[in-house]
Specification:
Layout lengths: L2 H16 L6 H8 L3 H7 L3 H21 L4 H14 L1 H8 L4 H23 L7 H22 L7 H12 L1 H7 L10
Helix pairs in contact: 1-2, 1-4, 4-5, 4-7, 5-9, 7-8
Length: 186
C-alpha cells in the first residue's frame, strides 16, 4: 500500500466534502488512521499534499496523452480530466490559499503543454523567450477557459477539446492572417 496515495486520496475526499480550509493534518491523520509521524514522513504539510497530488495527476495525464496519436486526443485527455476533477478544483480555488492554488494549477497546465509540445515537436523553430511566453499564454488561457466551461452539465468534451486544439494550432491562426495586398504597378 502506497501511503502517499492513501493520504492524497483521503485529502481529495475531504476537500470535496469540506473544502481545503477545513482539512487539517489532525483531521487527515484521523481519517487515514495513521500517526502524525507517518504523515510527516511523507509530507511536510497540507500544501505539500496538494502539490504532490497535482504533480501525480499531471504526470498521469501526460503519460496517457503522449500515447495518443494526435494532439487533439491529447488535449481531450486534459479536458476530460478537468471535467472529472472540476468540483475538486473549484473547492481548491475557493480556499484562502487561492493564489497558491491558482499558481499550482497554472504550473501544471504549463508543464502539460510544454511536455506535449516538446515530445511531438522536439525541434521547434522558436526562440526560448518566445516559447516561454507562448507556454504561459496557453496555460493561462486554457486554464481560464476550462474553469469557465468544464462545470457545464452538458459539455460536449469532444467538440470542446477540438475547439481548444484549433485555438492552439496554426489552423486557426492561419485563418486569421490578413490577405496579402497586391501591389499594382501603374
Amino acid at each position: 500500500m502506497n501511503m502517499k496515495n492513501v493520504i492524497a486520496e483521503a485529502f481529495a475526499k475531504m476537500v470535496r466534502q469540506k473544502g481545503v480550509d477545513k482539512v487539517t493534518v489532525k483531521a487527515l491523520i484521523d481519517v487515514c488512521d495513521i500517526s502524525r509521524q507517518t504523515f510527516y514522513y511523507h509530507f511536510q504539510n497540507i500544501t505539500d499534499v496538494i502539490e504532490w497530488s497535482l504533480e501525480r495527476a499531471t504526470q498521469e495525464m501526460l503519460s496517457r496523452s503522449l500515447q495518443e496519436d494526435t494532439p487533439q486526443r491529447a488535449i481531450r485527455i486534459f479536458v476530460s480530466s478537468t471535467v472529472e476533477n472540476y468540483e475538486l478544483m473549484c473547492k481548491m480555488m475557493e480556499s484562502r490559499k487561492r493564489e497558491q492554488m491558482e499558481k499550482m494549477l497554472l504550473e501544471a497546465s504549463r508543464k502539460f503543454f510544454e511536455s506535449i509540445l516538446l515530445a511531438r515537436y522536439p525541434e521547434l523553430p522558436l526562440q526560448h523567450s518566445d516559447l516561454e511566453v507562448m507556454l504561459d499564454f496557453w496555460a493561462c488561457g486554457v486554464t481560464g477557459i476550462l474553469f469557465k466551461y468544464c462545470g457545464r452539465k452538458r459539455l460536449d468534451i469532444d467538440a470542446f477539446s477540438n475547439q481548444i486544439y484549433r485555438l492552439l494550432s496554426e489552423q486557426m491562426l492561419g485563418s486569421l492572417k490578413e490577405p496579402e495586398n497586391e501591389v499594382s504597378e501603374k
